[in-house]
Amino acid sequence: MFPPEADPLLAENVNSQMFAKRMVQKVLIIEDEDVLRNVLAKKLEKEGYEVIVAADGEAGMNSIRNENPDMILLDIMLPKKNGYQILEEMHGDEELKKIPVLVISNSGQPVEVRKILELGACDYLVKADFEPQEVIDKMRTCLSSKGL
């Protein structure tokens, strides 16, 4: 078989297939509350995202390293390793800090939000105050700001 670039139509088809594969973005949800984790996962899957879930910070950090997600939804209060620790670990790694993180947490205290944003999160939502569609909208903004 000859290389795709030898046939412009074949090259276009190969490029389209590669682009289509990249269009499905992988989102990691790190959330210990089962109900919220499941609601978010179902909403994201319905929107066409590939979803990975982790119920604690340790499993979440392992998934970040092993699954290479395009986006992370992160709770702050987690068992085994909290969201701050995850953000700090990501912030110290040149590759991991490129992954956009949307924090979804119970507290919206200005000091907490400032610290989260300083550690590289692209945005923040208070759990009690959002609809699932708002998560999608903020995710799209975060992804587009990273060129994804």
Number of domains: 1
Given the structure, what is the number of helices? 6
Over the alpha carbons, how many angstroms does the gyration radius reach?
Answer: 17 Å
CATH topology tier name: Rossmann fold
CATH architecture: 3-Layer(aba) Sandwich
SS content category: alpha/beta
Taking the alpha carbons of the first and last residues, their distance comes to 32 Å
How are helices and strands ordered from N to C? HEHEHEHEHEH
Q: Mean pLDDT, nearest integer?
A: 85
What would you call the shape? globular
Proportion of beta-strand residues: 15-25%
**Secondary structure tally: strands:** 5
* Residue windows where pLDDT falls under 50 for at least 5 positions: 13-22
Helix content: 40-55%
CATH superfamily: Response regulator
- Major beta sheet, strand line-up: 2-1-3-4-5
Highest-level CATH class: Alpha Beta
Largest sheet: 5 strands, parallel
Could you explain the architecture of this structure?
There is one protein chain. It contains 6 helices and 5 strands; from the N terminus they run αβαβαβαβαβα. With about 150 residues, it is of the alpha/beta class. The protein has one domain: 3-Layer(aba) Sandwich (Rossmann fold). It has a 5-stranded parallel beta sheet with strand order 2-1-3-4-5, with helices on both faces. α2 packs across α6. The two termini are about 30 Å apart. About 5% of the residues have low confidence.
